[in-house]
Specification:
With about 210 residues, the chain is of the alpha+beta class. Helix content is about 30%, strand content about 25%. The strands form five sheets. It has a four-stranded antiparallel beta sheet with strand order 8-9-10-11. Strands 3-6-7 form a three-stranded antiparallel beta sheet, covered by helices on one side. The protein has a three-stranded mixed beta sheet with strand order 12-13-14, with no helix packed on it. It is elongated, with a radius of gyration of 26 Å.
Length: about 210
Amino acid sequence: MHHRHYVKGRLPWDYPYDECDVLCRGCHAKEHGIIMPSKDWEFIGEDDLGGLNGECEYCGKELRYTHMVTHPKWGTMIVGEKCCDNLTESTVGTEQHAEFLNYLNRRKTFIHSPKWSIFPGGERSIERAGIAIEIVPAPEGSFRFNLDNVKGKGIHATLLDAQISAFDYVESGKASEFLAERRRRLTKRNPANGAIFSGQIDISRDSGNCRSQR
């Protein structure tokens, strides 16, 4: 007999029938989180480990691409795309995996694109989604990127890190949102000619946040 909820001080036989379910021992254990539930899992994210550095916590298979699923009575597990499908009773794992691989391929194409213009001082530029991206050297061998001549404040240890961060920021749509809001503020400040504004964008690869400073 499974009680759907408990009331402090109420004896087990004092619950009305409509607050109870008759379950087999296995299903009862799953309801109470004693053994892992086989349904009602939810997909919450995926990651690329860069190699077979992970393991599916459901079947034990080695993983490079991990899928995170969670259950209110069990917690969170890292699994492969097929186990993700099985647990969520959907195709979300395989669909998200295909979409993620497509995203990685687009990013790889962006990084190695022959359309990059490279200048003697080490600067390089390219256009993506109608936005001019410029990556420039920063102190101590690091790099930062600018968008449509708006100077970026975020510092990245390598050129590759700067390229990845720029791609992710533009691809997510956050770059377009930031630039559109900046244009709106300029127009509001001086409708006649959009007063000249010199600013910086503070972009973190981890948080995706941006901040404009005069």
